[in-house]
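Data follows
____________
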Amino acid sequence: MVATASALVLMRPPGVAPLAGYAVAIASDRRRAYLAEAMEQHGARSVSIQAVRTYTTADEIALRAATEAVIAEPVEELVVTSNFGFSLWLRSAARWGMRDALLGRFRGARLLAASARAADGLREAGFAEIWSTAAGTAEEIVRYLLAQRLPGRHIAMQCGGPDSIDLCHALRRAGTNLIAVPTYQCAPPAHADILRRLGEQIEYRQIDAIVFASPEAVENVLAQARVDGRLDAVLNAFATDLPAVCRTELGAAPLRALGVTPIIGSAPFGEEALDAVVGAVGRRAVRLRISGHRMEVRGQAVVMNGELVAIQPGPIGVLRTLARHPGQVMSCADIRRETPGWTQSDDHAIEMAVSRLRRSLNGGDMIQTVMKRGYRLAV
């Protein structure tokens, strides 16, 4: 029997895509997360960050404790997320003299494989009846389980990476007796520059939203920001105009502890993270009518009368500041104060940014110069 999986990557709607003009960072344990493709399908420029380094080697103490817990109770559902991790588990159990008892527990369980290779690992262990999903992901296995009556069910889940932790959390919240079996360890990226660059992008609003794929990704980004002396700037970005999206409360907890309220998807899956990003950036877009034109200021672009116009990073920051105060004269000092990254810029730099904006918008009357006072958007 095969569970039906819903598609993460949907057809782009007609007109300007909902994430066109936005840059979205994906902080995960992979350089190229599958979620990045979904963001791009909806128009975003994705920035895929390896915020966690994962390697398949077990913490002996944690793995043995989980193995003993699995053997001690009946197992009704066994979720296997990776072939290599499952094989490591069985080899470790054999070394401790527990392999036969462990396999005995599996024989009374429904076997759920997250991928074809995970199913092969179960077959190599002597099992034949194996469930899987059409999508071939651990997310879809968990989505399938959450659609059932779960309170009191005994589930063992072999976890092959930090993204599994949020999935386990969701199953526990649904009332299961779940035992997470960690067959991995993780650490920060080998090169601190990866996270240092992300911190700069957050501080200067070079990205418009960030999705954290695991609690470890959140902790590593915050730890590096603290080392670099920009933690306050990063937290301020999250607290004001840069949405931080977490999959569950586990990932949100480190941010909440520092006074930031992140956005949590309705479920710990890719589709829900995508929906959360679309909703969050949409609420932050500035929409107004300027000189008879419909304008929507997005993260890195403007939608003018239904057409997307790309704007350079510096000028778009100045435009966003002016758009938040339509019709109001903003001095160069006002613009510097409200535009991230412009505090050290002189008046000439702002003048040049306004000149580029006028050329990009093809409408010199939209941004007016008020002599010796500053600039304003014509309303």
